[in-house]
Amino acid sequence: MSDAQRTVPEVDRAAAARRAVERRRARASLKRDLTMRVVTPQAVLHRATADADSVEGSMRITDFLLALPAIGAGKRDRVLEELQISPVKRLGGLGARQRRVLEEWLDARFPEPTPRGARSRLLVLAGPTAVGKGTVAAHIREHNPEIHLSVSATTRPPRPGEIDGVHYYFVDDAEFDRLIADDELLEYAVVHNRSRYGTPRAPIDAALAAGKTVLLEIDLQGARQVRAAEPAATLIFLLPPSWDELVHRLVGRGTEDAEERARRLRTAKGELAAQNEFDHLIVNEDVATAAHEVVELSSSSAR
Ligand code: 5GP
Description:
Elements: H1 3-35, H2 41-50, H3 61-67, H4 73-83, H5 96-109, E1 122-126, H6 133-143, E2 147-149, E3 152-154, E4 168-170, H7 173-181, E5 185-191, E6 195-200, H8 201-209, E7 213-217, H9 220-229, E8 234-239, H10 243-251, H11 258-272, E9 280-283, H12 287-300
Parallel strand pairs: 1-7, 1-8, 2-7, 3-4, 8-9
Antiparallel strand pairs: 3-6, 5-6
Bound molecules: guanosine-5'-monophosphate.
């Protein structure tokens, strides 16, 4: 064998090894997304079916099931037996019957949001901390003046550049107490164990009466209260593009200590688990696109 013949396979092997590492990394990242509910298992199965060579398609059925929230090894093995799927299968290599029974099992265990047809013009945008809902709302404020963006009352002090009556109504504790006592808030909550935030009811009623779409950018507790008060409200949950990206946005420059970092990640995981309570999921990969999708929902939601 000549030298030239020997060097070519060397190069190929290096490239193949690099690709294998990248794929392993991508599969590990996908597993985290499944565990943290950043993607639905059904969406992963669909991508695996559409392209058996994709990261999703190359995932072992055993790894897929184990990555799902609250599925341990014992449960995984029982499910595979029940569905009669061999543990050596990859997601992209499932037969038609196996795909169907797996999807039915996923639908029963991890129900996806079902669009409820025509909804009210009251839109609520929520999502995990640091997912960027404030940025999406600010984008809508700037580009879609036809949408009434609710201005909340808060007891936290203004940040530089924030204007009273535009970004928030900055009030003291006594005034916040009065707003509650006079039933002037549609919802209110203590956010991040610190300040109180609430949605003034009157401007929303006026905007809805004038035929406008109203958008509330509030936290999870607030979204639940709006759902209870106005069951027809359209609840939108903003998702990060991936769990790794949310971690990056949450812990950012790494200035927090390990305990604070762990606390934030626990909170985010809990918040992501609430997405099933929402009517629509929108991925915030790009702010303008996510904002556009919210606005689209507002025009499709009648009444
Ligand atoms: P920030 O202090 O950074 O402006 O907002 C902190 C959090 O408060 C954000 O998650 C935001 O969604 C939430 N928030 C803002 N206004 C309201 C509100 O009126 N009600 C509730 N429940 N949460 C709010």
